[in-house]
Specification:
Keywords: Coiled coil, DNA-binding, Transcription, Transcription regulation. There is one protein chain. This protein has two domains: 96 residues; 94 residues, Arc Repressor Mutant, subunit A. It has 221 residues and is mainly alpha-helical. 81% of the residues lie in helices and 0% in strands.
Length: 221
């Protein structure tokens, strides 16, 4: 009886051991599955990192190519800018030479004729008008040659009166010649001074005009 009980206990122990062994086997299988899953995940991460490294290398190579291209474009732009600067300078020189040639032709062709007419006694009062025209042409030629005429800021009437002042005519003479009032002439004189930036009230307007566009004999203003 006791032997049977011992056998039964041993059988229970063996069954318990079998159960534990099954549990251990299942745990081992689960660990293997987890290990395989981790190994797969690690392999995937490794492959992803390698792809990122390859992309980074390609990106760096592309950046180097872009930088090289940018350097080439910069050199090209600098060369083009230098060429354009030289071209602009050449065009400006050609323009100035052309305008100066035009100014010389104006003086050579028209001024002698007008001066001869101005010396003709038959012209009468028109000689004053011719003198104004000569002054205007001289100012125009000087302005073209220098790139900026002195009287370019003035209106046509102001330019006409400025030329008369420069030639030595008084305000009364200008008023009589143009058939305008003396006050109108004085207003023009003030405007001429303001536009030519003659701020010194004691400065001679005629002297200023002569100094800028040539010297003529006559009365001071």
């Amino acid at each position: 009886m006791e032997a049977e009980q011992k056998i039964a206990k041993l059988q229970q122990v063996v069954q318990g051991l079998h159960g534990k062994l099954d549990s251990l086997r299942q745990a081992h299988e689960q660990l293997l599955e987890q290990h395989q899953a981790l190994h797969g995940a690690l392999a995937a991460k490794t492959a992803h990192i390698e792809r990122l490294q390859n992309q980074l290398a390609l990106g760096q190579q592309h950046m180097e190519q872009l930088k090289s291209r940018q350097d080439e474009l910069t050199k090209t732009l600098l060369a083009n800018n230098k060429a354009l600067t030289i071209l602009a300078s050449s065009l400006e020189s050609m323009r100035l030479e052309s305008e100066q040639g035009m100014a010389r032709r104006i003086q050579a062709l028209t001024l002698p004729i007008l001066e001869r007419l101005g010396r003709d006694d038959r012209m009468g009062r028109l000689r004053d008008e011719l003198r104004v025209v000569v002054e205007e042409l001289e100012d125009l030629a000087a302005g073209i040659g220098d790139g900026e005429g002195l009287l370019g800021r003035l209106t046509v009437s102001e330019r006409r009166i400025a030329a008369m002042i420069k030639s030595g005519m008084s305000s009364k003479q200008i008023a009589a010649n143009l058939n305008i009032s003396l006050d109108t002439v004085k207003t023009h004189r003030r405007n001429i001074r303001r536009k030519l930036r003659i701020n010194d009230a004691g400065a001679s307007l005629r002297g200023f005009l002569q100094a800028r566009v040539g010297r003529l004999e006559g009365h001071d203003d």
